[in-house]
Amino acid sequence: MASPLKGEVMRLYKTLLYLGREYPQGAAYFRERLKAAFVKNRDETDPDKIRQLVARGDFVIKELEALYFLRKYRAMKKRYYDPEE
């Protein structure tokens, strides 16, 4: 793996690992799935394919953030919504 791409992959892994702490099915489940995904693609040497995989990982980051914001919104709505109105 090329040097600049290695940094991108490491950043992606660390970010996903951090976001996985609040995953609904548990941090251990998320960590196992994350590790399996990275191990599956660890022998990839084509820079274009690596960039494509990193882009897919960035998409997953955005999806996780949206999931967490939606969960927080639903909790706030449930807590402060007046059902009598």
TrEMBL record:
GO cellular component assignments: mitochondrion
CDD domains linked: Complex1_LYR_ETFRF1_LYRM5 (cd20265)
Source species, domain of life: Eukaryota
UniProt domain Complex 1 LYR protein: residue ranges: 8-60
Coiled coil: none
GO BP: any one term: respiratory electron transport chain
UniProt family annotation: Belongs to the complex I LYR family.
UniProt protein name: LYR motif-containing protein 5
Organism lineage: Eukaryota, Metazoa, Chordata, Craniata, Vertebrata
